[in-house]
């Protein structure tokens, strides 16, 4: 089995949302409606919700810190934008959910039995998108289950609070030289005490560093 991740720059409003609000969007398509999981700065939550509502409609939503979970009123495919999975059957490829949007582009993961099929599909995508190959790999049998579930075997799992604290620290400039934000400020923005914020940051750092193979 072979998997490729393609970065597509096209005409999706989600591209614009991620670029404008420093957000990331994960989309599970359901034909009649979609499930969205969005990460964005706390200050942008209301604006992001409004933009999504204008695009596909918001049937229901849950906001927890910097994370928004949305059930849409309509499917993104019913709107005037280019879909990436229209011709998959002709290339014997499978689109692995979710579709992810970040930094003004769409990321799709494609699975095929033969690497030549991924090459053929890549060439087809070039007719509608500006395409970059983000990664290619051959999957071991033990990796297939995690890959199909949308989980990257190399990516550690952070708790929602660890992710929120770490994201706030990175975006605020905690790791810059000189440091641009203190953990006290990070804690205040997240709404917890400094000692707890420090612990969440350290746990996130340990998980992320532990995932790197030297």
TrEMBL record:
Q: Which residues form the HTH bat-type domain?
A: 158-209
Q: Which residues form the HVO-A0563 N-terminal domain?
A: 3-147
One GO process term, biological-process aspect? regulation of DNA-templated transcription
A molecular function (GO) held by this record is: DNA binding
Which InterPro entries does UniProt cross-reference here?
HTH_bacterioopsin (IPR007050), HVO_A0563_N (IPR056531), Sig_transdc_resp-reg_C-effctor (IPR016032), WH-like_DNA-bd_sf (IPR036388)
Please identify the protein, giving its name as recorded: Helix-turn-helix domain-containing protein
Q: What keywords were assigned to this record?
A: Transcription, Transcription regulation
